[in-house]
Amino acid sequence: MKRHFVYLLAAVFALAGLSLFAFKAYSLGLPLLPGQTAGAWRVEATVRFQSGPGSIRATLRVPTLTPGYLLADEISVAPGYGFSIDYTTGGREAQWAIRRADGPQALYYRALLYEDRSRDRGDTTPPFPPPPQLEEPYKTATETLIRDVHARSAEPVSFTTELLRQLNDSAPEPHVSLLLSRANNRTDFVNAAVQVLAAARYPARLVRGIELSDRQRNADVLPFLEMHDSERWIYFDPISGEPSLPDDFLVWWRGQDPLVQVDGGSNVEVNLAVQRDQLGAEAVAEERARLTRSRALEFSVFGLPIKTQAVYAVLLTIPIGALVMVFLRNVVGLESFGTFLPVLVALAFRETQLLWGLILFTLLLSLGLTIRFLLERLRLLLVPRLTAVLVIVVLLMLAISVLSHRLGIESGLSVALFPMVIIAMAIERMSVLWEERGAGDAIKAAIGTLIVAALAYLVMGLDVVEHLVVTFPELLLVVLAIVLVIGRYTGFRLTELTRFKALAKDNAG
């Protein structure tokens, strides 16, 4: 097959792998580093009241559309109460009910939210509001204000900004003062603006929420204005008139309804508490994929059972170790036993640790090779000879484990983690190479095997490598592309540069 076709195929694999990687990393937000967390907040609403003589029904407005945040989880803590969450015109309501309760009562609603600045800030397009029924002189004052604001604005956003500016003027016009005469607090102020916007046929509504800061025991509820400009909902600070929300502002509920209502109780108090938390970035990506209806993660490792995930966490690193072996053999020029034997030995090093793995592998190889030479005099056939070597390897592993245990060297027990068949094959190949090419080449190949296994173990053992191949297994397509390119490499290996150094000098001379 022509060289350029191999390179084209490698480019296709690399492009496919990197495209999937970029989509999952930047669109779904899968973490690039292990242990990476996303900003999250735990909010808790506590409803306290004194129970009445009959049944109790409590309703709490809970977050629905939360610009900049996504709801990851929510629970209720209220022993003995029935609990449900229903959708209403103003959003969602948490409802508790009980047939009878005695004494002071406390209901808890807890939610876990994480930051997502790409979160859509709007919902459906509302109809034009009907003109409010106003009595004189409020009707005339409203019409005068609308004409004045309309003359100084060009579109809905600038109209709302100018309206809020005039309502906040330190020396307001008489008609503005009249409209604000019944505004006793910030919520009434926003309601007055909503009424003027409705008279101007602009959909608007009252929005209330809390500012998120760590360890708030009693967060203040702040009202904001929300106006629809025929394309999307836009939030306005009622004091500054800026079309934006604070960075850490959580929209809790919309509309005129109170935060909590309790039927059958008295002395109702509600408290909102906030605490910063850390949520695994993987969980955030899974939730984002669910909400965006992306099926990308349904076919990932995270969709498998946990036990199976643990298996693939090891298996997916094997191609990385194989890439290290390919590079060391085809580019550097190190010799080793077999093609994948060093990688399998590197897997054993994950359990034995590197130093003890090198010591135990060398000890097993030396003892096994000595006994293999003794078996050579029996002139056995290949399969019986390999079986005999395997039996000897098992006995040697048992002997080393028992002896190390008696000597108090517990690390020696990890010799049982070596793959027995691989050790037997390594002994057989080293003995054959010893006979065919001499002791020097056999020892050189054994040292090369240990070097390749050690480097593969170090690379495969990196937390970031394991995290990347498990989270983004499509990166193995990039590994495949690199292997294809190396497979067509026919130049000098690094170790051959030393071998032919003298020849190069002669040619130069």
Descriptive report:
It is built from 17 helices and 12 strands. It is of the alpha+beta class and 509 residues long. The protein has a 4-stranded antiparallel sheet, with helices on one face. A 4-stranded antiparallel sheet has the order 4-5-2-11, with no helix packed on it. Helix 9 (341-352) packs across helix 10 (354-376) and helix 12 runs antiparallel to helix 13. The radius of gyration is 36 Å and the shape is elongated. The two termini are 39 Å apart.
CA radius of gyration:
36 Å
End-to-end Cα distance, whole Å, is 39 Å
State the oligomer.
single chain
Spans of 5+ residues with little confidence (pLDDT < 50)?
none
Percent helix: 40-55%
Structural class: alpha+beta
Q: Averaging pLDDT over every residue, what do you get?
A: 82
β-sheet strand percentage: 15-25%
**Numbering strands along the chain, what is their spatial order in the largest sheet?**
3-6-1-12
**DSSP, total strands:** 12
Could you spell the SSE succession in H and E letters? HEEEEEEHHHHEEEEEEHHHHHHHHHHHH
Helices, by number, come to 17
Q: Characterize the main sheet.
A: 4 strands, antiparallel
